[in-house]
């Protein structure tokens, strides 16, 4: 992306932050929990199929 695209995205983030005010909460790295299971379906380690959660 060009510099102007990056600046536009950053400005959009600032507008969103301003609109949310105190409702915006960043949970920190805890939102990225590590799992002992690898990628794929739990227990199978096979790729997920569309619509399969």
TrEMBL record:
Region labeled Disordered — which residues? 21-53
Protein name (record) = Enolase
Looking at the record, the residues that make up the Enolase C-terminal TIM barrel domain are: 1-33
Q: Where is the signal peptide?
A: none
Write down the species: Candidatus Segetimicrobium genomatis
Instruction: Give the UniProt family note.
Output: Belongs to the enolase family.
GO MF annotations in UniProt: phosphopyruvate hydratase activity
The answer on whether this UniProt entry bears the keyword Lyase reads: yes
Pathway membership, UniProt: Carbohydrate degradation; glycolysis; pyruvate from D-glyceraldehyde 3-phosphate: step 4/5
Q: Keywords assigned by UniProt?
A: Glycolysis, Lyase, Secreted
């Amino acid at each position: 992306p060009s510099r102007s695209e990056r600046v536009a995205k950053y400005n959009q983030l600032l507008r969103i932050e301003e609109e949310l005010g105190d409702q915006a909460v960043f949970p920190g790295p805890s939102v990225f929990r590590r799992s002992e299971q690898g990628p794929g379906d739990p227990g199978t380690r096979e790729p997920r199929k569309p619509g399969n959660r």
